[in-house]
Give the backbone structure.
Amino acid sequence: MARTKRQICPETDALGDRLGKTIQRLRTVDNLSLGELSEMSGVAKSMISQIEKNETNPSLATLSRLSQALGTSVEAFLVDTPDNGSALVQKLNTQDTPQLKSEDGLCELRITGWIDTVQWVQWYDFKALPGGRLESSAHPAGSVENLTILEGHLRVTVKEESWEAKAGQTLRYRADKDHIIENIGETPAHATMVNILAHAVRPTS
């Protein structure tokens, strides 16, 4: 028997379509296959595929597991850009801004970037207690990370190279290799981090 087309309102269908495209975009940015995201989130591979194609209505629990695996929040999944003529594009509350912790628990990375542009550019608010160490996996080939130190003293290491910077200074470095940010000062450090992904970086001659 042929499957009957779901009877849903246009608003619900539009929300489901946006949700599916957002999950697919975030998964692609993180270079994750459906299988890898399934393993990370505990959500079946077939279910993720259906969500991305807007063929099913996922539960809140499912969305929560996917958002945690993708480093964002359910609220960020669902928030939409207003189309009311206002100059304001989006306003998020603190609880809608996802936070990540380093393995040592001494670094905090708050995702402040807009989810609609995550495939081109990602930006974060970074804080580290003395001795804090944030280890990051390589981003897509050609990506460049920009770290502006607002307070404290940080060191960035990419492979065998290391650079230090203090408040008021900026480091720009290739982020397509595993890299480490460390607070080597005696006081808490604070920085802004902007990662420009490979396809948004102008090729160099």
